[in-house]
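note to self: the first set is below, dont mix up w the second
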Amino acid sequence: MHVRAGTKFGLCLLLLALVVIGVHGKEEHKTNKSHAHEDEKKNVEAKSTTPVPCTCGIFLSGQFKKGSKAAPKGEPVITEEQDAHFAHNSIGQRQCANKCIESIIKYLPKSADIICSTIDRDCHKEKAYLFTKNYNDKWINSNMSAGRAFCCKDNKPYKCPMI
């Protein structure tokens, strides 16, 4: 590999800067270590009090226990954050769910293709359920589903058997 003299000098300066920053960062880390826990505590408090916008999440029935208040397992198959905040009550939760339905209804005809291409596993007769986050960073089951079961193999949909 051939490197020009000017480039070598630039690389040396960059390396020197990284070393100086690394040494300075270590010293700063030592002096600020006592403040790390305090800063982390503030971040957790800020996160818990910062309202979360209406967020839609589609989870498959294999990711949660029906009727349970427990959070679904894993990440949603599809997520969409809305540009709206709704009231922190049951009415706001319903408004958020309705906003989600408005935005995802256009994808229903291609839902099998979309779901099968986004999951990282095969699925057999699983329904897609709408969960929402509104104000709190916690998924709430809307108890609304696509009304049909999905079957996927190797990221491709197939017709679910009747039995």
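second set (the one i keep forgetting abt)
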Amino acid sequence: MVSVAIDLVQLPMIPAFSFGLALSAEKGVAELETRSMADVSWRPPRACSDYWEEWKNCKSIRNRFHYYYTYGESPSCQQWKADYLNCREWEKKMNVESRAALCESERKRLEERQSYSLVWEMRKRPPPDWHLPLDYRKPNE
């Protein structure tokens, strides 16, 4: 029989999804943390690379010019970077605070996007004069 020694200091966090347990190797001591299945299998709303790409796009010269032209001020890209760092923290250490911060950030982003009203009013039926030529109101010259 062959026995294999495992150096626990070099082991990353290995989630054991089938048992709802996570094997953590912090400070050389193996800890068996009991977590619910929802905690272990939770994924961020977006991939971490998406947060990184959004941050890079926000910091680009083209976006800065467009944002300044549109709103008259420079864009604030700190939230994208904070979300990226929280996402990486969740993936590496399954930090609950990072998870909560990501959820709150995405919730605020969705609320902000839904708070804008539509530009065009939706019609229930076409206007009564829809079939007339476009210049019917001009006097004939």
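remember for set 2: Residues 96-114 form the longest helix (19 residues).
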